[in-house]
Design brief:
The chain is mostly beta strands. It has 2 domains: 4-105 and 229-243, Beta Barrel (Thrombin, subunit H), CATH 2.40.10; 107-224, Beta Barrel (Thrombin, subunit H), CATH 2.40.10. The chain has helices at 4-7, 43-48, 70-77, 225-232, 235-243, and strands spanning 10-18, 21-33, 36-41, 53-60, 64-69, 82-84, 89-93, 121-126, 142-152, 157-160, 172-176, 193-205, 217-224. It has a 7-stranded antiparallel beta sheet with strand order 5-4-1-2-3-7-6. A hairpin with a 2-residue loop joins strand 2 (21-33) and strand 3 (36-41). The longest helix has 9 residues, at 235-243.
Amino acid sequence: MLTDEWLSVFVPVGVLKQPDAWQPLGAGVLFHTGSCLWLLTADHVIHDAGGEHVAVLVNHHKDGMVVVDLTEVHQQHDVQWVRNPSLDIAASLMPSSPDWNIKAATEDFCISLKQILPSMPCYTVGCPYGVATLDQKRATPLVLDGVVSGVNPDSRLIYISAPTFPGNSGGPVLVIRVPYDPGGSLVVGRPTVLLAGLVREMALVQANGSSHAAPALHLGIGVSIEVALELLKSEVAVAQMEKLGLRA
């Protein structure tokens, strides 16, 4: 089961069509490093925004949902997206306020690709098909479950059976790790819910050369969180932080 803290790590990502018209595009993950709050998402979500202002929905303790115009923040502070198009990861420094009801993941709650095993239960958190929220007063995601179907260490991709749809891109892939060591002893204080990666795409795998009609295999594909961690430690990301007087 996911706690409210994990659900608060998610934010819907979209564009401002007009000053008061927000349109969802995908999802994002709030991530904390040092004194910096970052938004992580899929690079193609930012690409799909075109020239529109990229904005996210966050929950306000008193005012319900508020729209945060990241493009406006970039222009005011002379910062930009940190992007890796080839691996489909993008990151932006994120403003914060004590009035916002948000949480952020940290590296302590991430899991490396080599620790992820097929059959691990997993969840995706996002807004498939542009469903930004089910509660008109709060930005609430849809949670879908499945298992890790496989991993590819070379491409650094995670394959999952949890359903993924347009609008899930950039949202978190969360895996569940049992709190036991290989000998069956309970490891006290060991996190059981971990951030494994970000949703990248869905894939429909068709049978080849079969004389019988076979259903397509539906897999969700995520990129390892290790790729995002490397991006946040890159020279471009460090330069963005230094420009604002922040530390990694």
